[in-house]
Amino acid sequence: MEFGSAGADRGLLKEFEAIIAVVIGGALLTGGYGSVIGAALGALIFGVVQQGLFFAGVESSLFRVFLGVILLFAVILNTYIRRIITGER
């Protein structure tokens, strides 16, 4: 047992997961505005989905692909909702 060291791969993709959680919560990747409540709800939703995939036995390589799909879906949905709200086409 070693103490005082950590693996180089600890925390891998955590910043990407944080970005996905905030985008799910309604923040735009292009800048602008978001809310703390939206970010917290996005993190909650992302955490539930992540745990569901873990308990379903999804492989880690497929999980990374799923992260990208979630981000893409969240960006498209946010853009669509913003266009409806602002009345743009």
UniProtKB/TrEMBL annotation:
The lineage of its organism: Bacteria, Pseudomonadati, Pseudomonadota, Alphaproteobacteria, Hyphomicrobiales. Its main location: membrane. It is found in: Cell membrane. The keyword Cytoplasm does not apply. It comes from Roseibium hamelinense. It is a multi-pass membrane protein. One of its GO terms (cellular component) is plasma membrane. This is Xylose transport system permease protein XylH. It comes from the Bacteria. Pfam families: BPD_transp_2. GO terms for molecular function: transmembrane transporter activity. Keywords: Cell inner membrane, Cell membrane, Membrane, Sugar transport, Transmembrane, Transmembrane helix, Transport. The chain crosses the membrane at residues 20-49, 61-81. Part of the binding-protein-dependent transport system for D-xylose. Probably responsible for the translocation of the substrate across the membrane. The keyword Magnesium does not apply.
